[in-house]
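Bench log. Compound arrived from synthesis this morning; before running ITC I wanted a structural hypothesis for how coenzyme A sits in the protein. Inputs:
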Amino acid sequence: MSRVIIRAPRPSDAGPYAEAVLRSTQHIKPWNPVEPDGLPDLLQRQGPGLRSYLIIDQADGGLVGKCNVSNIVMGRFCNAALGYDSYLPYAGTGRMTEGMRLVVDRCFADQVVGGLGLHRLEINVQPDNERSIALARRLGFRHEGFTPRMLFLAGAWRDHERFALTAEEWQPLEGPQ
Ligand SMILES: CC(C)(COP(=O)(O)OP(=O)(O)OC[C@H]1O[C@@H](n2cnc3c(N)ncnc32)[C@H](O)[C@@H]1OP(=O)(O)O)[C@@H](O)C(=O)NCCC(=O)NCCS
């Protein structure tokens, strides 16, 4: 049984979210913006193009991580990008990987069972971000290529390695998720 669950963020998460992000500043800062007060804005932006999930520890209810499923495009593409952070003290315990498996499963699941009905997912990672590349590979993502100057982060346009996975390559998780 998974040590974590995933669920949509809600307004009452703002306080615990801020604490988790602040606690994890040094861990997140090299790779992603650190925005402890960012949850209300994230909630406002939820819609057809963006769905966020919090990864929660089953044992103590603590916030393990967050994943944004962004740039969701349906129609003939059914594609989205995954962006994520894990939080201390759970980072590096395998819980984030477990939570991301649940997120990927939800992304590929049919809309009639509460999934997003996507066909392809991308993870874009800066070349030196070994922990994120390890996570993408643990989830089964394939390395597709290199995208120069892809995202504006920490004051510059950063190169990214592009990983992807399609629904055909995913073994759906068993049981109620
Ligand atoms: C990228 C990031 C989300 C990866 O999360 P994480 O905390 O490493 O993920 P997990 O909690 O699943 O931990 C995995 C590690 O714990 C280890 N581990 C320990 N116990 C484990 C267990 N019971 N089960 C599985 N793995 C376990 C794994 O071996 C792995 O270590 P490794 O990568 O050295 O092999 C995290 O490093 C992070 O937030 N980084 C800063 C922001 C960032 O880079 N975001 C992504 C931008 S693309």
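What the model suggests: The longest helix spans residues 95-108. The chain has one domain: 4-169.
ITC booked for Thursday regardless.
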